[in-house]
Amino acid sequence: MNASRTDLPLTQRLRALNLPLVAVLTAVALVRPLMSTAGLGDVLGGRPATPLILTAAISLIWILTVGLRRDRDPLLTLVVTGLAYALAVTVLSAVLSPILLGRLEGPLARPYAIVPLCLVNALWGAVCGALALALRRMRGTAV
After folding, report:
1. pTM exceeds 0.90 for this model
2. Taking a C-beta distance cutoff of 8 angstroms, is the pair 7, 22 a contact?
3. For residue range 63-108, what is the model confidence (pLDDT) as tens digits?
4. What CA–CA distance (Å, rounded) separates 137 from 140?
5. Contact 111, 104 (CB under 8 A)
6. First CA to last CA across the chain, in angstroms?
7. Is 80 exposed, middle or buried, given 0-12, 13-18 or 19+ CB atoms closer than 10 A?
8. How far is C-alpha 113 from the geometric centre of its chain's CA atoms?
9. DSSP codes of every residue in 66-133
């Protein structure tokens, strides 16, 4: 059976996603903003090293996790993960910024940033998803 069912309507493909996996991968990505919020940005060398290293590590985790599993739709799984991450970061900043800074910061304070945030993170997921598919092909796993 074909592991990637791109011939099905998008609504069916979305319903068939492994949502617990999307949630776990989203939580993994939240390490990046939480480290920054906790003031641990200098742990891996400060800016710009820490965000870049964390993004690369998160991407590798996403690619390996989805690329080595038998999920039906790796590309869609990681695009949805990127969008879930954008939503989670928006909510996280809305909750934490008033507590930590005394004022609202982040995407909700600048609504014009919400669409680009979603697009960038969906693109991040798409690139990782394409690499996960490439990993599957290299391993000879059906896609």
Report:
1. no
2. no
3. 999 999 888 899 999 999 999 999 999 999 999 989 888 999 989 9
4. 5
5. no
6. 9
7. buried
8. 17
9. HHHS--S-HHHHHHHHHHHHHHHHHHHHHHHHHHHHSS--STTTSGGGHHHHHHHHHHHHHHHHHHHH
C-alpha to C-alpha distance for 72 and 6, rounded to whole angstroms: 9
Angle, to 10 degrees, between the axis of helix 19-29 and the axis of helix 49-68? 160
Determine contact, residues 108/94, Cβ cutoff 8 Å: yes
Nearest to 87 by CA among 107, 57, 67: 107
In the prediction, which pLDDT does 43 show?
A: 65
Cα–Cα distance measured from residue 122 to residue 16, given in angstroms and rounded to the nearest whole number: 19
Structure tokens at 40: 């641990």
What distance in Å separates the CA atoms of residue 74 and residue 129, rounded to the nearest whole number?
Answer: 6
Side chain identity at residue 36, one-letter code? S
pLDDT tens for 98-114 read 988 899 998 999 999 99
Question: Rounded to whole angstroms, how far apart are CA atoms 5 and 119?
Answer: 23
